[in-house]
Amino acid sequence: MCEEEGIDAQFHKGGILTLARGEHRLPVLRSAFDAYARLGSAQQYRLCSAGEAQERVHVTKISGALYASENASVQLGTPRLRFGAGFRRSEAAWYTSAPR
Fold first, then answer.
1. Which end of the chain lies in a sparser environment, N or C, as judged by fewer CB atoms within 10 Å?
2. Total number of domains constituting the chain
3. How far apart are CA 68 and CA 66, in angstroms?
4. How are beta strands 16-20 and 45-49 bridged, if at all?
C-alpha cells in the first residue's frame, strides 16, 4: 500500500531480533519459539546463539536471540508531512466508509 500511495514509510524487511540479555531469559525465547512452532510458523523463526546475535548487533550480556525473518519495520513520522496526497486519499476513504 505504501508504494501504491507514494507514502514514504521507510519500509524495511530486515526481520526482528529479540535478545536474551542473560541466561535467565533464554527459556522465554525457547517458549516463544515453541509457541510459533505449534502455530505452524516455525520456518519464520530461528533461535540464535550469543555469537550469532553479536554478529547482528553489538550489545553486552547477550546469551542468545530469537530471529523473526519475515518481520519488517516502518517509520511513519509525521503522517501529514510525509504522506502527502496518499494519506489524504486513504483518510477520505476511511471517513466515507465509516458508519454514521
1. C
2. 1
3. 7
4. unpaired
17: closest CA among 53, 41, 42? 53
CA dist., res. 63 & res. 51, Å (int): 8
CA angle, residues 9, 10, 16, in degrees to nearest 5: 110
pLDDT digits (tens, 9 = 90+) for 38-96: 999 989 999 999 999 999 998 999 999 999 988 877 776 645 444 444 544 554 444 44
Find the domain containing 38 and state its range.
2-97
CA geometry: angle at 12 spanning 14 and 41, to 5°?
A: 50
Tell me how far apart the alpha carbons of residues 69 and 30 are, in angstroms, rounded to a whole number: 16
**∠ CA 73-13-65, rounded to 5°:** 80
CB atoms within 10 A of CB 28: 12
Task: Flag whether the pTM goes above 0.70.
Answer: no
C-alpha cell at 93: 476513504
